[in-house]
Each structure stands twice: as structure tokens, then as C-alpha cells.
Amino acid sequence: MTVPGRRSSTFIRLLRSGFTDPSAAARLLDADALAAVRADPVLLDALGATADPDLALLGLVRLAEAQPDGELPGLLDTLVSAKPLRDRLLGVLGASEALGDHLARHPRDWLGLITYEAADLHPGLPEFELGLADAHDPVGLRVAYRRCLLSIAARDVCGTIDVAQTAAELADLATATLRAALRIASAAAPEDAALCRLAVIAMGKCGGNELNYVSDVDVIFVGDSVPGADEGKALQAATRLASHLMRICSETTVEGTIWPVDANLRPEGRNGPLVRTLASHLAYYQRWAKTWEFQALLKARAVAGDEALGAEYIAAISPLVWQAAERENFVADVQKMRRRVVDNIPAAQVDRELKLGPGGLRDVEFAVQLLQLVHGRSDATLHSGTTLDALHALAAGGYVGRADAAQLHDAYRFLRAMEHRIQLYRLRRTHLVPEDENDLRRLGRSLGLRTEPVAELNKAWRRHASVVRRLHEKLFYRPLLDAVAQLTPGETRLSPRAAGQRLEALGYADPASALRHLEALASGVTRKAAIQRTLLPVMLGWFAESADPDAGLLNFRKVSDALGKTPWYLRLLRDEGAAAENLARVLSAGRLAPDLLMRAPEAVALLGDPEGLQPRTHEALEQEVLAAVGRAENPEAAVAAARGVRRRELFRTTAADIIGSYGTEDNPAEEDHGALVDRVGGAVSDLTAATVAGALRAAVHSHYGDTLPTRFAVIGVGRFGGHELAYGSDADVLFVHEPREGVDEQEAAKAAQTVIAEMRRLLQLPTTDPPLLIDADLRPEGRSGPLVRTLASYAAYYRRWSLTWESQALLRAEPVAGDADIGASFIELIDPLRYPMEGLGEDAVREIRRLKARMESERLPRGADPTLHTKLGRGGLSDVEWTVQLIQMRHAWAEPGLRTTRTREALAAAHAAGLIPTEEAQILDEAWVLATRVRNAVMLVRGRAGDTFPTEARELAAVGRYLGYAEGTVGELLDDYRRITRRARAVVDELFYGA
User: Fold this and answer.
1) The pairing of beta strand 217-225 with beta strand 814-818
2) In this structure, are residues 584 and 591 in contact, taking their beta carbons and an 8 Å threshold?
3) Tell me, what's the pLDDT at 374?
4) Are 408 and 471 in contact (CB under 8 A)?
5) What is the pLDDT of residue 732?
6) Which of 526, 772, 909, 958 has the smallest count of CB within 10 Å of its CB?
């Protein structure tokens, strides 16, 4: 009798044996079916050793209660007396609810676990075919399949076979099942079978002899006619047989289903014919196949049907598979496919995805397959469809470092073991790690983690996933360094040829030069070389994602040569996670940013500072420039100091632009392209204004000391005044002055002229920096008029002679340097001109339209494609800006929001005021932002300004990358640009021309 309030000894023993619900377990042990063995201590210990003792006991009771009359004693006697049977049976019942259900429905199938002979321990394809031989219909095939699966699961959970052997046995069972299904289908349609030859090619994990417990079985069907038969009718017959085979395996019956047979890896996928001839397959692969299809064919294996036809297929496609790495954009295509897989995982599941998530099984498989395809061209030892065998061969050949291969091998086996046990529980196709505590406990115990199964499981899973994440891309690059560094004697290394092949596959146009750069960076035993060997595997991967990996690596070598002796440089790249990736993006995105960095290498420190890429304010820039100019000994030194600030800040701006456009592993690309454009335009305009202010201060100081005889201001117009300067834009300006009290007007004018000339001279001194040209051609009378005027002179001219286009040019006038009061007075003077009361008259509107039409016909460069010219082309910058400016001149007198020098602000204000419908405003904004980004990209890539897309392939690809287009999709870029600007032009025709 149990004392009230105290637990019984049975309860405590069950608890210690691992039962989570001892009360329910005690009730199950009291079941009549277990009366003969319930007191046997061996049974309780054996149940406690299973992954889920509660589940194992429940399954045992159900099996015992289902035994036919007279057979229960045999089950129980064998259970307590035969340890192999006990471990196998209870191990399965404790790991798989689904197989427990099967045994309850088929209570004599436990007898298949009794035998313990050599053939039984390691069955192969012949044994599984024998096990399915008596199945003559889909239901019988399912029962026989589960019986065979039961034996595999028993060996698996008892540790008789490891995870790789389990996967191979599951693939052998799938092969036997496909053969049996084809046999059943052929028996149902003997006339079809007699008319055709049909070969079944296994793909994916089945083809690679590494199948899961529950997985789609990927296949391709190859058909042909028998001698004398019509090919068309033969293919129809083969298609009927193939379809029937798929239904036999896939359809749900009273015994459930086996697994889906998926033929979507065939040419043209589900849109293509189910069965093709060998010739038709080859024609498709030679002409139309994509890179991923050759990657999939790496695992192709003939498994059922006509053996000769299957062997012909494998022999014919094998050379195509091993030539795939020679295809353009090969590595990029494979990596893009991997990213697409990750992107398609629901956000809520990505952290639990064992197969497809970052650090999952697919990362290992993709990395191994990539290396196989690159080096398998010249090394047949790599021609294996099995991931672990291929990884071993890669390590043996020196294509992968042995330590890296060993870590990946262990991680892959652990992750596959997790996947197997997760699927075994209910025999459902899933790759998600469960969230329920009991499921995690069962999973951990099934993998031998018994002390704290949930905590130990999570720790081991995260550790192995971290190893995969860290290594799966470095795997591709580390051996390149070993090939050139030559550190460890006797270690197998990549040959120069293999290293060249790998670099070429990555997109390096000059592998020999790349290897020389690697050797220069990574060779030797210095601390510097050791850090480089740590950095370079990752850097090479980031370079390879750009349009010009060669330039990225060369630029990295140059920067490293310039800064290699400074103690902080390599430490920054090694320890500040973002710095190295940011540098790689900047160095491989084109010429402008690396050129700026080469002239100010210390600016690389900005890349490791979280705030380092934020644009500085106009006030801070002007203060720094003026302070530097004030410390200079002469005007040349002063402008050199100003240029130094400009160089560093231009690098800051270009780096932020590139990183924001490309994105990094931790921060995706900026989605708001308008914000990117505004930041660049504002930063470059503020920097130009500060530089002009510095040149003005230097010019005044060199000729007049601290005080100029006249008050002088610089007015920015055009893109400068609109805060919309691109990297290569000239600075359009007007100069205005006002003589100081008591100074003769001619003397004041001469002083102003002298300062302007000196400013221009200083800013045009020879330099390697991007030029800063001051353009005053928008002044009254253009080049024929005086370079500088007083306020009164401007007022007189505008009152008497001003043309409509001059008023339009003043829409973007804003003081940028010099005397602030003079600048404000000038703005007060021109406001009535640019925002005329009651708006423009019809004559003025017609004049603006006439000027615009003439500009379109006369100013577009000869031979330029009007659909791709960003400034003057259809729907380009000029179209949008003239449309917005016309609205400003007609309505700004009444709408204060339109009184701005900035195009996008004015466009938004016009929309807010109801002057432009929402859709039309969005169309114009999108076109203007895109055209501006293209101009910025051209300057970043080529290092010189341009209004059209580059014609050189690599430069065009680099522009595409900056704009977010993947490798090989520049055609889409040009199509999108034409489509967006075509829509914008339609809006311009309506709003500007009144069409």
C-alpha cells in the first residue's frame, strides 16, 4: 500500500528511467497484454534506453494487444530473452510513432527484426528487391515497403549502421521500390511494355545514394521504341507507364502513401513532356539548359527499367555535366540559386530550417557540388553523386583543406542525423526543427544526448550550423591561399592549374595575375601574412560577387601595400566585422572610390566606424575647410588642404553610396533609391560648396588679406543650387558683389574679377582628384556678359532684358559661399522673376516649350540612343526637370511649397497641391531617380562622368550591380530603363506639352 502523499517506488523508478508521464506509464504496464513481463527489470531498463520511453511503451502495448491468438507469448518471450530483438523493436517504437502504427496494423511484421545475420545487418539492393517481390498491387507494395523500412529504422536507431549507411540503404530501398512499381505498371499494361523501352533515372538524394526517410524521389524518364515500333506510339506508351509508376508510389491508399515521385527536374520542367528520347534530352541540354540543371545532373543515376538505355543516358550527359563550369556566369548562377532558395523560406521558419536555412544541409551540398563541377573537368575522382564521398575526394585531392573538410563532414553527418530522426517520428516530409519541448527531448535522446537532451541538442545544432556558415563559402577560397602560401610541407595543395580553374570559375579574367596578388599578400610567416590568410578567403568571395573581381583584388593589394605597416589597418579589417566587407564592396565596384582611397588610404578607417559613412553637415564641412585654408602658408597649399578634405569626403560619400546600393550580409541594400540619390546629391553639393568657400577664402587672402574691397557672394544654380550634384557634375554658379562703403565701383569690380580669376586658377591646378570646374555660363548675356555684377546691375538687366529661360534657370539659384547677406539680397531680387505673380502667360509657356523642343533636336549627341541618354533622352532628367519647373513658374506664386530649388521636393509639392495626379507624380519621380542613379553609377564605375550606359561589358555589368541587377541580367536593366522612361515621357507629353 502506498502511503498518502508519497510516491510509489514504481512511480519513482519510471521517472528515473526517463518516462515523462510515469502515471500513464504505470497504467500501461498494468495492461493485461504485458502481464507476463511487467515485473521484468530488463524490460523497464530497455524502455528507459529508448528515445521516448512513453512512446515505446505505448507502441509495445498496442503491438502486444494486436497479436493474433496464440502468438503473444512468442513476442514476449523473445522480447525479454533476445537483446538484439529487444533493442531493435523498442528502439523503433521509441523513435517512430508512424512505425508503431504500422506494427499495430501488421502485428506479425515484428518477426522481420529477429534475424541477426550478416546479410540482415547490411542488406543491399538485392535483399530489398527480394523483400518487395511478392507485392503485386499498390497496397501490397506499401506494406512491403514499410516492412523493409522498419528494418532500416531498427538498424539506424540501434547504431548498427551510421547516418551515411542509413541514407544509402534508403536509396537502395527507393530503387527497389521504383523497380517494383514499374513491374506492377508493366503487368497492368503489357501491350505498352512491349512497345517501348523506358529507363528511370534517379536524381537528387536518391540518385546520390543519400536519401532521407521521407523525401520526394526525383526522377527523369528516358524512352525509346523497340525495333520495328513507331517512335511516337512508343513514347506515348512509355509516358503511360511512367505516369502509372508515379501514381503507384504517390497515391494515398488504405496503407497510406510511399513518397511522391517528382519528375520536375526533366527538361522544361512540368511544361515539358514526361518522357523524351535520349536524342531529345541531349538537344535540350546542349541548347537550352540552365546552369542549375547541370548541377542537378551531377547526381543522375540509372535505377530502373531498360538498363542499356539508362547507361546510354548517363554516358551521354556526363561530359555535359563536367563542362558546365565553363559556362559564362557559372559560379554566380549557382550562388544566385542558393540565395533564391534562402529568400523563399518564410521568415518565421528560417531559424528552424535544417535543410535550406543558412548553415544548413544545402549550404554543404551546394559548396561541394560547386567545387566538384569546377575541378571535376580534369579530375575524375571527384565524379561522385554522394556528398560525403565527394567531400572526401575533394580533401584527398587538395581542393579543400583537410581540417575544413573534417569539420564539414562532422557537421553534415550531425545535421543529416537530426533530419533523419525528425522525419522518422511521423514519417512526414519536414526539415523544420520542432519547437515543442517533448519533441526536442525525443530528438536529443535519439541522438545519444541523455543528460540535458534539449539544451545539449540546441547547443550541438547551433555549433554545427555555425561551422557550416563559416566554412561553406571559405571552402572555395582557402585552398587558393594554401596553393601560393606554401606553409606546411607535405600538405596536398591545389596545383597552379586547379587554382587557375577555380579563379576563372569565380569570374576572374586574369587568374595568373590574381594568383600573383594572393602570393604577395599571403606568403610568409609574418603576423601580417597570417592575418591576410584569415581575411582573404572571405574577401575573395566578396570580390567574386562584383562585376570585376580582378580589380577588387588588385585594389586590395594596393591598399594593403600602402597601409600594411600601419598597426591599425589589418586589425580593423580582422576585428571590425563590417569593415572588411565594406572595403571589399568599395574596392570592386568601379574606379572612382578605389582611386580616391589610393590617394587617401587612411580613409579606410571610415569603413569600420558605424557613423563613419554618415554625411557631414554643410556647416561642419565649411568649418573644417576654412580652418585648413587659414593654416596654409600660401594659396596653393590652401587649396591643396581643401582638396584633401574634398577627397576624403568624396570617398565617404561614394563608399556609403556603394554599400547602400549593394548591401552587405548584415544590412540589405537600401530599398528607398530616392533617399540614396538625395543623400549623394546633398553630400556632393555641400562638399562642393565648402570647397568653393575654401578657394574663395584663399583667393581673397592671397590678394587682399582679411578684407575684400567688395562684399562678394557665390550663387549656386542648376544642380549645384538644387543640391543635386552628381559625382562628375560641374558647379554652375553666378557671382554677385556689392562695393563696400567708400570703395569706388570700378575698384570693387576689379577686386571681384581678380578673386574669381584666382579661384578658378586654384581650383584648376593640376591634380589627380576628380576635377571641380566652375561654370558661370548661366549669367546674364552668357559668355558675352560680365563675369560678375552688382545687385543693381542684376536688377537692371532682369528688369529690361531678361528672357524666360533665364527666369527658369533662376529657379534653382541658392547662395553657396561668400557674404550671406549679399546672397540673401540676391534671392530677394530674383524671387519675383522665378515665381511671377499670377504665373506665366501663354506666350512665355509657348516659348519654354519651343526652347525645350529645340534642345531635344539639337543638343542630343550625334549617334546617341535617345532611349538611353539619361540627361537629354526620352523621359530623362531634362524631361522631368523642365516639366516640374514649368509647374513651379506657373503656380509657385500661389503655392509656397513649390518655392524650392530641389526637383523631388517641388514634384512632391506639386502633387500635394493637386497639380499632378498621384500616378503621374510617381512615374516622374521614379524616372528621375533612376536616371540620376545611372549617372552616378557610370561615374563610380568608369571614374569619369557620362550620360549614357557604358558599352564595355564589364562596365555595364558593374552599373547593373550598383542598380541591383544580378550578373547576366543587364538586358533586363536596359529594358527596365526604357520602360520606365517611356512612361515618364508620356506624362511629360501630357503635362509639359499639353498633348
Assistant:
1) unpaired
2) no
3) 86
4) yes
5) 95
6) 526
